[in-house]
Amino acid sequence: MEIRKKYAVRMVMLFMTIVSCSMVMTGCHSTKRASGDKGHVTETVRISGLKGIQKKIVEEALSWRGTPYKYAGSDKKRGTDCSGMVIRVYQDAAGIKLPRSSREQASFCKKIGRKSVRPGDLVFFATGKKNTVISHVGIMIDDVRFVHASTRKGVIVSEVTEPYYERTFRMYGRVPR
Questions:
Q1: Active-site annotation holder among 28, 29, 40, 82
Q2: Could you identify which of 1, 13, 134, 154 might form a hypothetical disulfide with 68, taking C-beta atoms 3.0 to 4.6 angstroms apart as the criterion?
C-alpha cells in the first residue's frame, strides 16, 4: 500500500508540473513579440494605445522583425539595412519619402529631446569608426525601445538604455509631415 501512495503522489506532482509548464508556454498574447537575443528586448511589445499614423508606422516597423540584414537592401523578404528599413516603413505606412542614408535621414529630421520622443520617431547612432558621424538609425516604438536592422541579427527590437546604444547615441529625430 505504501508503494501505491508514493506512486500516486509522484503522478500528481508530475501532472501538476506538466500543467504548470503548459500554462507558462501557452500564455495568451494579443500583442506582437519582439525578437532578439542577449541584450535585446524579448518581452511583449504593446502598441494598443497608439492611433493613426503613429500606430501604422510602429506596426509596420514591427512587421520587419526577423528580416535578414543585407547591406543597401530594403526588402522585407530578401534583406535590409537600417536606413533601407526606415525608408520602406515610412513610405508604406505614411507615404513619406526619406533620404537613403542614416546620415541624410538625421539631417532631414527635426532634432528633438529625449522627453519629446514619441512612437514612430527616429533614433540615430554613430556606430562606425568616427564617433561623430551618424551611421545607424532605428524607429522608436515607445520612449525606450526601437526597431532596427542589426548587421548580425537582422531586424530586432533593442533598448536605447543598453550600454552600447547609450555610448553611440547621437540624437532623436522627428520626420516632418
A1: 82
A2: 154
